[in-house]
């Protein structure tokens, strides 16, 4: 019997959006296979903090919970089996975990929800009227250099590029940083960009 769901992730305030909605549907189906007549809880691993974990542990002890289902569908897992070792519970890890419970949620979501364009449209850069590039929030060297190259070429106002963070370091000099290049290009990493009718490369040695 599923007693409670601990969810502080993407779905909590965005239940009507396609991805969070499908996450909820998946979790509802998954939990049915691991509960039965046993007291169980479902834990969304997204944004699982120490404070949340303390609340979960307290709830487990107070309600004789025997099965804990940790689910990581939208992000890399945070809540892990090892965090519950001190408790007499069975832990089932579902989603982006190594083990029997692994499955690639976004591969399924892409197949279900995405309506792809024909290849000829995807490959024709002339159809792109507003270039967009999301560089997330971590200021990895190649991301900062890409933004710097766009600024140097006076192209930042020709499209939309995002690089978030509380400590913005767009002009940082990386000359003293140690570069770990990917295995496919052990000597250097080259990024080719097409932006507003111009093609340029960013090489990191």
What would you note in describing this structure?
The chain has helices at 18-32, 50-62, 105-113, 119-122, 141-152; strands spanning 2-6, 40-44, 67-72, 90-95, 132-134, 160-162, 189-195, 198-204. By secondary structure, it is of the alpha/beta class. The chain has two domains: 2-113, no CATH class; 119-204, no CATH class. Helix content is 26%, strand content 20%. The chain is built from five helices and eight strands, in the order E-H-E-H-E-E-H-H-E-H-E-E-E. The strands form three sheets. Strands 1-2-3-4 form a four-stranded parallel sheet, with helices on both faces. Strands 5-6 form a two-stranded parallel ribbon. The chain has a two-stranded antiparallel sheet with strand order 7-8. It is elongated. The model is unreliable at 177-190 (pLDDT under 50).
Spell out the helices and strands N to C: EHEHEEHHEHEEE
Number of domains: 2
Taken as a percent bin, the fraction of beta residues is 15-25%
Helix count from the secondary structure assignment:
5
Radius of gyration: 22 Å
Structural class: alpha/beta
Q: What is the overall shape?
A: elongated
């Amino acid at each position: 019997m599923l007693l409670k769901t601990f969810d502080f992730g993407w779905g909590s305030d965005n239940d009507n959006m396609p991805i969070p909605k499908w996450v909820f549907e998946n979790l509802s189906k998954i939990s049915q296979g691991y509960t039965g007549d046993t007291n169980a809880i479902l834990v969304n691993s997204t944004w699982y903090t120490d404070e949340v974990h303390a609340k979960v542990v307290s709830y487990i002890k107070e309600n004789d919970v025997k099965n804990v289902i940790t689910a990581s569908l939208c992000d890399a897992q945070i809540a892990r089996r090892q965090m519950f070792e001190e408790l007499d519970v069975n832990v089932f890890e579902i989603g982006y975990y190594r083990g029997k419970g692994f499955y690639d949620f976004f591969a399924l979501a892409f197949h279900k929800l995405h309506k792809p364009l024909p290849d000829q449209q995807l490959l024709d850069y002339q159809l792109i009227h507003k270039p967009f590039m999301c560089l997330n929030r971590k200021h990895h060297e190649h991301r900062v250099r890409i933004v710097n190259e766009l600024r140097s070429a006076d192209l930042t106002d020709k499209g939309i590029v995002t690089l978030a963070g509380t400590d913005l370091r767009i002009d940082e000099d990386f000359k003293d940083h140690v570069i770990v290049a990917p295995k496919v290009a052990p000597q250097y990493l080259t990024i080719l960009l097409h932006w507003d009718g111009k093609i340029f490369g960013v090489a990191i040695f």
